[in-house]
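User: Show me a protein chain along with its predicted structure.
Assistant: Here is one chain, sequence first, then structure tokens.
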Amino acid sequence: MLVTSAYHMPRAMLHFRQNGVNAIAAPAGHYVKENGVADGWGSYVPKVQNLRQTTLAWHETLGSAWQWLKTKTTGW
């Protein structure tokens, strides 16, 4: 069983599969809106705390691109 942050799970699962490990995904730490609803116009106002989510998204996007590139060039 692979337990990691939900945002990191796709890249982690790919890494495990590439190394012959058949893991079962158990994502944790999901980013969700409270009560699952937007808070009106406040949803469209930038918030400092959302910078972390943006940083994590870019980190995972660039990490996935690097992992793809490494797979294509080295066969790993």
